[in-house]
Write a structure and sequence with these properties.
Elements (H helix, E strand, L loop, with lengths): L2 E2 L15 H12 L4 E5 L5 H13 L4 E6 L10 H7 L3 H5 L4 H11 L11 H18 L2 E6 L6 H11 L7 E8 L21 E4 L5 H10 L7 H11 L3 H19 L4 H14 L4
Parallel strand pairs: 1-3, 2-5, 2-6, 3-4, 4-5
Helix pairs in contact: 5-6, 6-7, 9-10, 10-11
The chain binds adenosine-5'-triphosphate and magnesium ion.
């Protein structure tokens, strides 16, 4: 029986434009039992690809563990650990030695020392033991979005486990907001959470036809070629920016229509409203 924790996977229908090569490389790496880290600037589509890969791999995993860090909560120690293991730890906790059980319980209930000094080894071993015990029942997929905001103790614990899980069916899939190759920033705490042989994949910008497909799919069909060219150029192929520009262009077009004399403007306004997806 497959188990899932945290928010449900989004419906399969979420359309991912382009990214075939990237998805192929991620697929190969995960099939080999390796880990994947997606990276790129804000809005480039990391979470979208992360969800697509998760949906695909969740099928073959018995347990899917997830966390998605947020900036406003990144100071809370063990929060990611709670998100990842909070609902599943009980399933295997009785297989852990008593000191590990106690340390894990303290961390998951907010009583542990954030510094990881006191009971630090017991807690590190407990996280490793839980992942091993879950993996003994079937493959585990551990998905973490917005790793740039992962709380530091959770990053430390995950890293300790990740470095010792070789040969154990626990695959890690993550996304981090950064414009540069994650390995160049070794001081970043999220890097400690991933095994050194993790495949880091940068999300490139979308091409002009892909931006055009994105806009058409989101209710901005029929934009002029020159407008699409402008949107692609200005957004630099960033899907979030392109969608925002598409919306703005449509609103501007609509405002222009409204200065036309009232009787003649109606059919044009309807056309623009349609083009803007505001039917
Ligand atoms: N390949 C894609 N196909 C279709 N839509 C996409 C694609 N990539 C991104 N989008 C859309 O662009 C927007 C931004 O994508 P997403 O949230 O995945 O970016 P992100 O890189 O995770 O951003 P952030 O750094 O803020 O977390 C969303 O509306 C998403 O649906
Ligand atoms: Mg995201």
């Amino acid at each position: 029986m497959r188990r899932e924790f945290e928010e449900p996977v989004r419906p399969r229908s979420e359309q991912v434009i382009g990214r075939e090569e990237l998805l192929g490389r991620a697929r190969d790496q995960l099939s080999r039992g390796g880990s994947v880290l997606l990276y790129g600037p804000p809005g480039i589509g990391k979470s979208t690809v992360l969800r697509a890969i998760t949906t695909e791999y969740a099928e073959s995993a018995r347990t899917v563990l997830r966390c998605s860090a947020t900036e406003s909560e990144s100071h809370l120690p063990f929060l990611a650990l709670v998100d990842l293991l909070g609902l599943v730890a009980d399933e295997v906790a009785d297989t852990l030695p008593a000191p590990q059980q106690a340390a894990l319980e303290a961390a998951l209930t907010g009583r542990a020392e954030p510094s990881l000094h006191q009971d630090g080894l017991a807690l590190r071993l407990a996280v490793l033991s839980v992942l091993r015990a879950l993996a003994a029942k079937g493959p585990v997929l551990l998905v973490a979005d917005d790793l740039q905001w992962l709380d530091a103790p959770s990053a430390e614990l995950l890293g300790f486990a990740a470095r010792r899980l070789g040969g154990v069916p626990v695959r890690m899939l993550g996304a981090v907001r950064t414009g540069t190759e994650p390995k160049e920033q070794e001081h970043d705490p999220y890097l400690r959470a991933y095994p050194p042989e993790t495949l880091a994949l940068r999300l490139p910008p979308l091409s002009r036809p892909q931006v055009s497909e994105l806009l058409a799919g989101r209710g901005y069909p029929g934009l002029r070629r020159s407008t699409l060219r402008d949107i692609h150029h200005t957004s630099g192929g960033n899907p979030l920016f392109a969608l925002e520009l598409g919306r703005t262009k449509c609103s501007a077009l609509l405002n222009d229509m409204l200065v036309v004399p009232r009787v003649s403007r109606f059919p044009r306004v309807v056309r623009v409203l349609r083009a803007c997806g505001r039917r």
